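>> Question from a student workshop board

For tomorrow's exercise we were told to take the sequence and the ligand below, predict the bound structure, and bring the output to class. My setup keeps failing. Could a helper post the expected result so I can at least see what it should look like? The ligand is adenosine-5'-triphosphate.
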Amino acid sequence: MTETIVVIKGDGIGQEVVPAAVEVLEAVADFEFVEREAGDYVRDEQGDPLPEDTYETVRNADATLFGAVGETAADVVLPLREAVDSFANVRPARAYPGVDALRPETDIVFIRENTQGVYSGIESRITDDVTTLTRVITEDASRKIAEFGFEYADANGYDDVTIAHKQNVMRLTDGVFVDAARAVGDERGVDYDEKLMDALGMLLLLEPEEYGVVICPNLAGDVLSDVAAGLVGGLGLLPSANVGADNGMFEPVHGTAPDIAGEGIANPSAAVLSAAMLLEHFGYEETAGSVRTAVEGVLSDGPTTPDLGGSATTDDVAAAIVDRL
Ligand code: ATP
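>> Workshop helper replied:
Here is what the output should look like for this input. Compare the format with yours to find the bug.
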């Protein structure tokens, strides 16, 4: 069967790194690619940043490879994650040999709840002066993400599982989250650790080697994975997978990087590693492994883009990865 992959470049460096990832996928797999549009430029041209056709195509495809969108992120990324029925956002932060990482011993995978928390989108203006946001946490969704996280740790050989929360302040909502996660850990009979999410931000910097899989509520996962990006050499290196039951959307953790957009120097590694996660999602473990090995080889021996101290372009790096494959 030929899987159908929707390709959405979006804004800024999404336009540059996604074609690099597609070039790599074309070199190793036989997918049918369907390109669709979304983002700020689509809003400016057509009025709607996420045309119905894009949403429906993503919903009905086997998977989506996504770049980044700017101001319209909440109008594009959140509905698309919902379109692929994604409850888990998997964000591995790994240091690679040859990359000048702040903490080379880092190998942490953030398992971020993808549907609830403060990203539920329920905001109200009460008066001109007062606004509110509703933080939704359900036991069902918390159990689901915890089960996914513990299973991921087991399947991928991570011994350390940490539950991140802020139950001491958000007593009810994070109370539900942490109780559900504890119950899953206890039922599985495995050890786990719990950390307040703010303290964890500091601990990740001081002792990253103590952490393996971190199960987080939505916002905490977003913030802590960016912290970890700083440990391993920058946002150009972090891929992510939005996992659903039988669909998925794969995207670099970084955004549109307006400061370097259009210059052709964005690091495509995060997008290519996201493509490797897409291959894994379909069960092409071996091919995913070769893509990762090729990326690691290029990160170690060059060429590299300016964020990693080199002077190569996005296309140079993509070509070097394809060469190795
Ligand atoms: P957005 O508003 O879309 O989130 P941003 O600039 O606030 O954009 P990111 O796009 O995530 O946030 O990037 C933060 C910084 O990290 C960028 O300014 C850029 O310098 C760097 N960066 C991010 N991704 C890459 C990449 N792929 N290659 C090189 N540098 C990158």
